[in-house]
């Protein structure tokens, strides 16, 4: 399975940032990486980013509404993202869960919306620091899988992103052993529920302070199927150093 290296720009970037998209595309063309490359810019840039990328990399959204259309001021549907040129969408990011009160049930509905529109859903899960300290990290992750991953997952319609909340934007990361433990646990949950075909082949991304200096080590851990990268995806040079560290590791 090819790893997936996905950049989450969050609420960063105006027209000038399209230059970073072009720089990433040129890097991918000059030296094709061993992984799939996706950038999720703010919604305002998706159409222009997709036009700029011309298929050299994939473009995605950072969130979607569960409904196709309607009286939901400020929201964007999965169908709208698809129409703008997206092929994937992040759902259930911890910042959405924290600042927008998104529950597992809402995340599940958003993942179903992504599939309905023909988008790959990147479903985020992960424990808080207090939950890890209390020894509940594995339990929290399996609960989030049970309640925010819909029936119907396939290896091509979904990637799971394990993002320990305490590692996002903090410069702190779990040890390789801790990452391996959680990813192995997620793999077991997926295989039990979705079978040895789809459950075993679904990519499990690691996210949380991944950067050029730690990418090779993290991407070599078993059951790490790629990365979801925030801060270090904003600059083409840093993001390129991460996707060039990808191996064929499942
Ligand atoms: C993220 O927001 O998904 C993320 C992993 O952020 P960072 O890489 O900045 O920790």
Explain the overall architecture.
It is a single chain. The protein is of the alpha/beta class and 250 residues long. Helix 2 links the parallel strand 2 and strand 3 (58-61). The protein is globular. It has ten helices and eight strands. It has an eight-stranded parallel barrel with strand order 1-2-3-4-5-6-7-8, surrounded by seven helices. The model has no long low-confidence stretch (mean pLDDT 97). Helix 1 (18-30) runs parallel beside helix 2 (46-53), helix 1 packs parallel to helix 10 and helix 7 runs parallel beside helix 8 (176-201). The chain has a domain at 1-10 and 59-197 and 214-230: Alpha-Beta Barrel (TIM Barrel). It binds phosphoenolpyruvate.
Show the helix and strand layout.
Elements: E1 4-8, H1 18-30, E2 36-40, H2 46-53, E3 58-61, H3 78-84, E4 88-91, H4 94-99, H5 104-117, E5 120-125, H6 129-133, H7 137-148, E6 158-162, H8 176-201, E7 203-207, H9 212-219, E8 226-229, H10 236-243
Parallel strand pairs: 1-2, 1-8, 2-3, 3-4, 4-5, 5-6, 6-7, 7-8
Helix pairs in contact: 1-2, 1-10, 7-8, 9-10
Structure described in brief:
With 250 residues, the protein is of the alpha/beta class. Helices cover 43% and strands 15% of the residues. The chain has helices spanning 18-30, 46-53, 78-84, 94-99, 104-117, 129-133, 137-148, 176-201, 212-219, 236-243; strands spanning 4-8, 36-40, 58-61, 88-91, 120-125, 158-162, 203-207, 226-229.
